[in-house]
Every structure is written in structure tokens, then in C-alpha cells.
Amino acid sequence: MSAGESENVTEVRSAADSATAGRVRRIVLWAALILAVAGVWRGILAAAMPCMSRDAVLYCWYARDLGNEGLGLLKAGEYQQHPLFPLTILGVQRTLRALGAADSPATWQASGQAVVWLAGMLLVLAAALLTMRIVCVMELPVCPGRSALLALALAAVLPLNTWLSADVMSDQLHALLYLLAVALLLSLGSWRVALVCGLVSGLAYLTRPEGVVVCVAGVAVLLAQVRTLRWRTVAVRTLALLVGFAACATPYIAATGQLSPKVDKETLGDFQAAVGFPPAPSTDAGETAQAALNRLDLPWYGLVPFVLYTTFRAGRIVVPLLALPPLLHLRRRLARPPLLGLSICLAAHLSLATFLLGHHGYLQPRHTLVAVLLLLPFAAIFLAHLLSDLSASGRRTLGSVIIGLCLLPLMLYSLRIPNAADRFIPAAVAWLRQHDPQIDGKLLVGGASQRRIAFYVGLRMQPWPENEPTLERRFAELRRHIVGSRPDYFAIETGPGDECQGNDELLVQLQADDEITGHLVETHVHHARGDTALHVWEFAW
What we know:
Elements: H1 3-48, H2 56-69, H3 84-98, H4 105-138, H5 144-157, H6 159-164, H7 171-185, H8 191-207, H9 212-223, H10 231-256, H11 269-274, H12 303-314, H13 318-329, H14 340-360, H15 369-392, H16 396-414, H17 424-435, E1 443-446, H18 451-457, E2 460-463, H19 471-485, E3 489-494, H20 503-511, H21 514-517, E4 520-527, E5 533-539
Parallel strand pairs: 1-2, 1-3
Antiparallel strand pairs: 3-5, 4-5
Helix pairs in contact: 1-4, 1-5, 2-3, 2-4, 3-4, 4-5, 4-7, 4-15, 5-15, 7-8, 7-9, 7-15, 8-9, 8-10, 9-10, 9-14, 12-14, 13-15, 14-15, 15-16, 17-18, 19-20
């Protein structure tokens, strides 16, 4: 090669390196901008949210009880959650108290929101990391950086992510750990990687029981490689994976004596005994004292279509729809490493959602969040491939418009304020505090939604089984709880919603009961969304 040719080659390489460096800088700048906007908007939603959701308040309640009673509380029958998320809330709350914050419900809520905000931001990065890992490990013909950037954008504006990053729910922390474990699962190239994958999977399990799925999928992936790897290598990596998971999970399982409280039948017996309430008479096997939920009675052939509908709803159609072309293209590789583990996790979560729907008649979009997040990298890969093709044909502007149109519906839904319809809860809390300055420590009988009132005001809470199958049994149980525990306050919501169905009739029957109304001091009504109303009764026994 002549000197002139050598100089030309050097110039070409230098130009290529400069172009690559410029592309990397643009990707980093766009990623920083997306994260900044996502973080600010999640903070705005957290500040604008009127109150926590009915499930979210449980995590703050459990965190507070863990701080007061210690880890022995995990054995209590009423404790129905895995401990990592409440423990992180407790840690942040203790830190805020050390910095001078008051020990108040507002501090507990702020602590929980700080945890989910940070977890939500890291989850956006984890979605980008998983996407880049899939592109690199699978050697797909798309730009890893561009795919990761599009995954970052999709995860940042996914409505479930934004809402759950403002409310105090465990989904964001669990999804973060889960996606990190799946990213490691794509290439268990050494026992060290397998060990870390097991540890992260164990942490996900300590947040929600579904975390065990990654560990099971990892074992399946390693066993599937017996033909390509020496059996001793497979055994060492499998052992490392199980050791990592066991290091996190075994202490919790040993302390509680069960794999998960969520797989056991829920009862209120222990909780009633703790507050001194007489035990309920024996009932038919299988009955639980869960909150009144909109339960669906679907035939067996309707379960899978409804789960798929809910998954598409959780991804606002955009994410699952965009993920379909890459999945169809890679269909022959989905059942083999390195995608085997991800495929098992996706199939397992859809199966768990189907079981939840069939067994309990209950399924919410957030229950399919992990499935949507596992589909999201493929949606980003499809968009990256589409943008590359359009750019190559000189239609880059059209590609940008298409991406904007895909992100727009997600962004519009993300503008909604979580729990905006529950503004009557802070209104009732303010009335109670003004009405009764000595209210702290008094007893409230109510349902799952009214548990928030007890938390914010500082009341003791006596729940009643809202899901009795007939109105007569619901009234009998409610009357027994009121007469038996002699509460200072009783709260119930009425209106057209499924979770309020029959409550109007219950109030009429309670008002006709002389033993109850004879002790009624005052009734206060807070009107909420539509015809929904919150009724608060005060008693003097």
C-alpha cells in the first residue's frame, strides 16, 4: 500500500470514528433529555395526586408496623405482602426523620413516593439496557444505541409506568429488579453472571412472588444448553444461580414458614384477635375477607382473550402491537437460548394472569405490566428497524413522524393524574381532623378504600368482609363488626360503581337497626365523582 493510499484509509477511519462519536453524543443527549422530562413529570404527578390508592396505603401501613414491631410481623396472618418494598419505605422514612421530618402520614407517603420515583426512573434505564442486550446478544441488524433510545422513550411515557411512579405501589421496584434479572438471563456466560442473576431474581422475589419466575427460567435455560456445554459447566452455573436466589429468599421463607403469603387463603382472624375483636363464626371453606372488587365470572374459553385484551390495554395497544412483527420474525428462535429465558418469563406472566383471572375473577392492567415491559424491547427494535429503512431511502422525516405518532397516545394517557377521582378522601380527612381534634387512636370500621382515611387521620382500623356473596350476609357481617367492636366511626362509599354495589341498601338497613342508630351521633357525607358519595358516621357507645 502506497503512502497516499495509507493516508486515505486513515482519513476514512477518522471520519468514521468522528461520525460514530457524534452519533453516540446525540443518543446520550436525547437520553438525558428524555430522563429529565420523565423525572420532572413523575414528580408533578406525585405532587398532584390527591391521595394514595387503596392498595398503596397498605405498603405504608406495613412499613410503619415493621418499624414498630420488627420483622416478627412477617409471620402475622394479616401481613399479605413481601417485605422488600415496605422495608425500603421504612428506610427512607427513618432517613427523613433523622433529617428533621415529622413522623406523620405525609412523611410516610413522601417516603414511598421517593422510592417509586427512583425505581421508576431506573426502570426506564433498565428497559433500554434490556433492549440493547437483546440486540447485541442476538446480533440483530439494527443499531443498539438507537433501539435502546427508543426503548427509553417508550418506557418513559408508558402510562402505567408514570402512574405507578407517583403512587406508592411495589410494581415499579419489582419490575426494575425483574428486567435487570432478565437482562442477565440473556447470557449466563459464567458462574458469576449466574450468581448475580440469582441474587437479583431473589430481590425481585422479596418484592413480589413473581420474581421466582426468573430463577426458574434461568434453570431451564442452563439445562437447555447441556448439549452445547459440558455438564459440569452447566451444573456449576445452575448451582450459582440457585445459591444467589436462595441467599435472598431463604431467610424470608424460613422466617415466615411459607413461599408467599399471597398464595395462602386470606383471613381476618389474626387481625381481629390483635385488635381484641371477637372471632367470627366458622364459615364455608374458601371464603375470604378480601376487599370488594369487580370480580368477573368468565367461561374458561374467555380467560385467555381477556388476558390478552388487558395486556394490550396495559400497553395502550401501541407497545404490544409494535412488538408483534419482531416476535413473528424471531418465532423460531424464541424457544432457544438466548431468548428462551425471556420467552419463559413472558409465558409465565401471561399464565399467572390467566390463573388470577380464572381463580379470583380479578385482573387489572398493572398485573400485566411485566409482560408489557418484556414486549417493549421488541417494539423499540421494530421502530429502530423502520427508522433505519426510511433513513436509508431518504425519508427520515417520515420515520420521525411515525415514531411521534406512536409515542403520542402514550404521552396523552400519561397526563392523567393518579387517583384523581378520590379527592373526597383528603376532604373527609380534613373534616374529621377539624371535627374531632382528639381523634387520634380512635376506631374506624370500613372497607379497603376507607383504610386510607384511617391512615391519614391516625385511626385504628377494623376492616369488614366486603365480598360476601349475598346482601343479607354482607349486612350480617357489617352489623356484627359494628356492634361487636363498637367503633367511634364508620365509613362506606355508595354509588354506581361495581365496588359500591349494594352499599345503598346496606345503609338503609343499618339506619333501620335501632341498636346501631341508637348510638349514632352524626352523619357526614362527602360527594365525589358522579353519584358516588362517602358516608362517615360517628358513634357514641
